[in-house]
Amino acid sequence: MSFAKISQVAHYAPDHIVSNDDLSRSLDTSDEWISSRTGIKSRHISQTQDTSDLATEVAKSLLKKSQLSADELDFIIVSTITPDANMPSVAAKVQGNLGASNAFAFDMAAACSGFVFALAMAEKLIASGQYQKGLVIGAEVMSKILDWTDRSTAVLFGDGAGGVLLETSEDKHFLAESLNTKGDQWSCLQSGSKGLNSPYSQTKARESSYLTMDGRAVFDFTIKTVSKDISQMLDDHKDMAIDFFLLHQANVRILDKMAKKIVVDREKFLANMQDYGNTSAASVPILLSESVDKGLIALDGSQTIFLSAFGGGLTWGNLIVKI
Ligand code: ACO
């Protein structure tokens, strides 16, 4: 039986930073409203780079930190809802940019849950015994799918990428998993769904392909449904002491309420949405990589972390990982 472990982490964000005050010059909003409702203070915005550029930076950094050559990789999975194009995949471009000639590469989309879903799938690839090393990356340029005249969504998101190197291990590191979808609530969060037209098409296209969101419904879903699932997992695995909870960085109020609901010390919930906003599939791996850089997480097998992501689909996924 093979096991998988996260052996390296990395993140990257575009240089250009947009503060809440910057946004309030073009939108009817304020730093006070955005900070108090979301916890977000600023976000990185790509001016020249696509998702594949961000993901390639992360991939190069992962190889450099782990002193691996690109041809040692067996697979590259990128999770994104903002691919450069429908075809080719972002992962294929990353593979080409790296020259990772032995790796197969593909994208996986599960919105904000994408990285957690992709990590769970990648762990199975390694556990199968057929593959030894792979990259799992979450990368987004959310700024390119936002309606920048809509204050209710434009202030929430940011661009960035994060990822991990997954390798074989003799010990079990992926301790528990719960992946879920509630497809009957897909309309709460959508983007890019303007529809494709053909001369034969008789369906009416949506007016806009920008991201739209029923913020209240999403908030309620996270507090009721996702918290319940986290509590259940913690109950089922009482023997596992969790050092840190790394939840999708959508909104600080979600973290506050969740910590209360599942009765966990709020200090154990790491946060960086103040500097990044919501980076969708990139949010959990950016937070993980930053936490390693800050020395909170050591990558030496001594800690247990709880990864949780939730968003469009609706989807949500939880993993307990020894790291
Ligand atoms: N600046 C100033 N006022 C604003 C802004 C803004 N940027 N955006 C909305 N408002 C106004 C609204 O127009 C409304 O005004 P009105 O009362 O005069 O009509 C008022 O603020 C309240 O609007 P609500 O939408 O009810 O605000 P709410 O308190 O629900 O907060 C928020 C909105 C922050 C989006 C909240 O619903 C939320 O946290 N939802 C969670 C979903 C989330 O974070 N989604 C991100 C993507 S999904 C994901 O990643 C899981």
Describe this protein's structure.
This protein is of the alpha/beta class. Helices cover 32% and strands 24% of the residues. The strands form 4 sheets. A 5-stranded mixed beta sheet has the order 1-7-6-4-5, with helices on both faces. The chain has a 4-stranded mixed beta sheet with strand order 8-13-12-11, with helices on both faces. It has a two-stranded antiparallel sheet with strand order 2-3. A hairpin with a 3-residue loop joins strand 12 and strand 13 (315-322). The longest helix is centred in the last third of the chain and has 22 residues, at 215-236. The protein is globular and about 55 Å long. The model has no long low-confidence stretch (mean pLDDT 95). The site of acetyl coenzyme *A (ACO) has 23 residues, from helix 2, helix 6, helix 7 and strand 12.
What keywords describe this structure?
binds acetyl coenzyme *A, alpha/beta, 323 residues, 10 helices, 5-stranded mixed beta sheet, 24% strand
Number of helices: 10
Give the end-to-end Cα distance, rounded to a whole number of Å. Answer: 19 Å
Gyration radius over CA = 19 Å
For the report, how would you describe the main beta sheet?
Answer: 5 strands, mixed
The count of strands amounts to 13
Write out the distinct hetero groups bound to the structure: acetyl coenzyme *A
The backbone outline, from C-alpha atoms, is globular
> Largest beta sheet: what is the strand line-up?
1-7-6-4-5
Helix % is 25-40%
Pick out the low-confidence regions: none
Secondary structure category: alpha/beta
Average predicted confidence as pLDDT: 95
Order of helices and strands: EEHHEHEHEHEHEEEEHEHHHEE
Strand content: 15-25%
